[in-house]
Amino acid sequence: MKKALLLIDIQNDFLPTGALPVKDGDEVISVANQEMENFDFVIATQDWHPKNHESFASMHEGKNSGDIIDLYGLTQILWPNHCIQNSEGASLSSKLNLDKIDIVVQKGTDSTVDSYSGFFDNGRKKETKLNSILKDSGVEELFIMGLATDYCVKFTVLDALSLDYKVNLIQDGCRGVELNQGDIENALNEMKKAGANLI
Ligand code: VGL
Ligand code: ZN
């Protein structure tokens, strides 16, 4: 079965000194660099927001990061400004072995809808090029890791399963936001229940 490694959002803004820091997020970098040696096909996703993205608390008067709003019919957690297109914060970490990454798939470019999954926006209205790239390359099995366990990793894993990929989650290559205590554990359970193989 042809396999690919999927590195989720290992971008400066999700690292400990970034705008939306994931605790110990930098620890996934060495795991990624090791894992890449085992794959001949590596894809990285990149959260890539316009500066007026409506997932930003700054776009909503009187709202703060962590607040929850209704955004055109979808429940939206508001975040600090992060991963703004072409900013340093949006760049993949320079500590990654970037030479081993074959393709970068960007997401979250529509200012009106968030996009946690590497495959679809949160309303599942539009898709990125990820599924067609994988299908065109004959990939059937995915190994997924990155940031953040309870958001972009989780939704990418669930969508991959719904698209009938065999999915392995590289657990020590993931770190989570844990906005509420238990979020990471719940995300792991949800992925497992949906059919992901936790390795
Ligand atoms: C992410 C929140 C907002 C992630 C992206 O990569 O998990 N989380 N945008
Ligand atoms: Zn984002």
Supply the key terms:
199 residues; alpha/beta; Rossmann fold; six-stranded parallel beta sheet; two-stranded antiparallel ribbon; 8 strands; 21% helix; globular; binds pyrazine-2-carboxylic acid; binds zinc ion
Describe it.
With 199 residues, the chain is of the alpha/beta class. It has a single domain (2-48, 84-198), classed as Rossmann fold (3-Layer(aba) Sandwich). The chain contains 4 helices and 8 strands, in the order E-H-E-E-E-E-H-E-H-E-H-E. It has helices spanning 28-36, 130-136, 149-162, 183-193, and strands at 3-8, 42-47, 68-71, 74-77, 103-107, 141-147, 166-175, 197-198. The strands form 2 sheets. The chain has a 6-stranded parallel sheet. Helix 1 links the parallel strand 1 and strand 2. Helix 3 packs parallel to helix 4. The longest helix is centred in the C-terminal third of the chain and has 14 residues, at 149-162. The chain is globular. The two termini are 18 Å apart. 43% of the residues are buried. Pyrazine-2-carboxylic acid binds at residues 9, 14, 47, 79, 116, 147-148, 151-152. Zinc ion binds next to loops.
